[in-house]
């Protein structure tokens, strides 16, 4: 695409966005007012489906298709970043990965203590998404960052042992596949793609709100695996790959 | 409540200015992480705990880590001064 063509495409997109967004902004209710039409309808819908956390009900039920699209974007961007970070022709895998340098004992201890805590916290945020703030995305990121505490506390080899990368690549596919399977299940039940077809259960129970917890767990697996694979790409590029003709 | 939000808004504005005016990308990753925490407290005060959780996990942990690693890689490949 030439420079002019790019500007034309950009201009058309911007003009449409400004037009639509501009006309919509003037119809918004005033900030801090008492009239909230969207809140009223969405809270009613969430309570009907027995989901106390309305935000998760919107993400994983009422607007499930949007979340499906977002996860597809995440998957595509992780794939793109990994493609860019792959070892080039003039780069080789290092035989010995450099060990961690000098480190405060306190940092090391904090890392090892916080590693299991943050993993449990991440899992908790994922499975309780429909009850308390959080959900698959937030919990997944906490899981992935928690895992990297082993790099902070230990060394890169320690992280590598804890992180068989292949399994996280599978995890990404399983998470995305799980969301697609949930969507197809909704179609097969005759209710539509990603419709909430399971019984909604009792308000406030761990197993309630129908498909919301399943959707959340699938997203959690996908996000955690995606972030681990992404950070692994950066770490490998930095620590494990040496440029042959570089000045290292 | 209004006062709390105003104080947090002022803190976020100050933090954002500090991030922008930090010229060294390595230092910028650290100021960005602090700014991310400030922003997540503002989200919490505005009754959006879900967004605050995303912000604290992505904005103050994953993104600064990726910036730091990218800067390190670029410096070691181009042989720049450390």
Molecular structure report:
The complex is a heterodimer of chains A (248) and B (82). Chain A has 248 residues and is mainly α. In chain A, 33% of the residues are buried. Chain A has one domain. Chain A is built from 10 helices and 2 strands. In chain A, helix 5 runs antiparallel to helix 6 (136-147). Chain B has one domain (2-78). Chain B is mostly helical. Chain B has helices at 2-21, 25-45, 49-78. Chain B is elongated and about 50 Å long.
Q: Secondary-structure map with pairings?
A:
The complex is a heterodimer of chains A (248) and B (82).
Chain A: H1 3-25, H2 37-48, H3 54-62, H4 64-85, E1 91-93, H5 105-127, H6 136-147, H7 149-153, H8 156-162, H9 165-188, H10 212-240, E2 241-243
Antiparallel strand pairs in A: 1-2
Chain B: H1 2-21, H2 25-45, H3 49-78
Task: List the main descriptive attributes of the protein structure presented here.
A: 248 residues, 2 strands, B: 82 residues, mainly alpha, elongated
Low-pLDDT parts of chain A are: none
**End-to-end C-alpha gap of chain B:** 46 Å
Q: Could you estimate the helical fraction of the residues of chain A in percent?
A: 55-70%
Structural class by secondary-structure content of chain A: mainly alpha
Question: What's the pLDDT, averaged over the residues of chain A?
Answer: 83
Structural class of chain B: mainly alpha
* Structural domains of chain B: how many: 1
Q: How far is it from the N-terminal to the C-terminal residue of chain A, by CA?
A: 37 Å
Compact description:
By secondary structure, chain A is an all-alpha fold.
């Amino acid at each position: 695409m030439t420079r002019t063509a790019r500007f034309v495409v950009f201009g058309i997109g911007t003009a449409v966005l400004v037009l639509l967004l501009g006309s919509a902004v003037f119809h918004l209710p005033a900030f801090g007012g008492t009239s909230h039409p969207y809140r009223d309808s969405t809270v009613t819908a969430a309570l009907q489906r027995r989901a106390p956390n309305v935000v998760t009900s919107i993400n994983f039920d009422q607007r499930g298709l949007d979340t499906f699209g977002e996860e597809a974007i995440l998957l595509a961007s992780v794939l793109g970043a990994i493609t860019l970070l792959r070892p080039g022709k003039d780069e080789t895998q290092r035989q010995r990965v450099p060990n961690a340098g000098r480190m405060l004992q306190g940092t090391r201890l904090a890392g090892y203590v916080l590693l299991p805590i943050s993993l449990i916290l991440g899992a908790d945020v994922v499975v309780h998404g429909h009850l308390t703030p959080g959900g698959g995305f937030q919990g997944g990121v906490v899981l992935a960052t928690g895992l990297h505490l082993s790099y902070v506390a230990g060394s890169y080899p320690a992280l590598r042992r804890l992180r068989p990368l292949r399994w996280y690549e599978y995890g990404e596919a399983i998470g995305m596949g799980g969301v697609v399977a949930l969507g197809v299940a909704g179609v097969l039940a005759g209710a539509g793609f990603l419709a909430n077809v399971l019984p909604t259960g009792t308000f406030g129970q761990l197993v309630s709100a129908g498909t919301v917890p399943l959707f959340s767990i699938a997203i959690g697996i996908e996000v955690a695996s995606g972030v681990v694979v992404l950070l692994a790409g950066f770490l490998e590029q930095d620590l494990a790959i040496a440029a042959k003709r570089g000045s290292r | 409540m209004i006062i709390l939000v105003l104080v947090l808004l002022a803190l976020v504005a100050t933090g954002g200015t500090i991030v922008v005016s930090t010229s060294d990308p390595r230092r910028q990753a650290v100021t960005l992480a602090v700014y991310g925490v400030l922003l997540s407290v503002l989200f919490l005060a505005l009754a959006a705990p879900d967004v605050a959780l995303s912000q604290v996990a992505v904005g103050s942990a994953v993104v600064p880590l990726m910036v730091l690693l990218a800067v390190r890689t670029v410096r070691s490949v181009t042989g720049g001064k450390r």
